Amino acid sequence: MAERCPYIARALRSGQNRSPALSLTRRRANALELIGAVPKPNLPDIATDKIRVASAFGAKPIRVLTYRPVTSDDPLPVILQIMAGLRDGRAGNEGCGK
User: Fold this and answer.
1) How many domains, in total, are found in the chain?
2) What is the per-residue pLDDT across 73-83, written as a single tens digit (0 to 9) for each?
3) How far apart are CA 64 and CA 53, in angstroms?
4) Most-buried pick from 1, 17, 39, 98 (CB within 10 A)?
5) pTM score, two decimals?
6) Is residue 31 part of a domain?
C-alpha cells in the first residue's frame, strides 16, 4: 500500500510511523500535567452539597450538586444546568442538536 500512497511511503521512510498508542499516552500525560498546573481557587465562603431528587417513572434518583454562599440564608437566584445522561450512567451529549 505504501507504494500506492506517496504520503505513507514518505512517512515510513522518515520514521514518522510512531505508535498511536504511545502518542495518546503522552498526550494524556501532558493534559494531566497542564490540568494540575491550574491554580485551584480557595473559596471558603461557598458551601457545596449533594442531594438526590426523586425522578419520574421509577428511575434512579437524580444527583443534584448545590453551591451556596455561606454568608446568606436569604432566597437567592438560581442557575440550573441540566446535563444529558446515557442509559449506562455515563454523562454525555450524544444526540444533542439532532
Assistant:
1) 1
2) 888 888 888 77
3) 7
4) 17
5) 0.39
6) yes
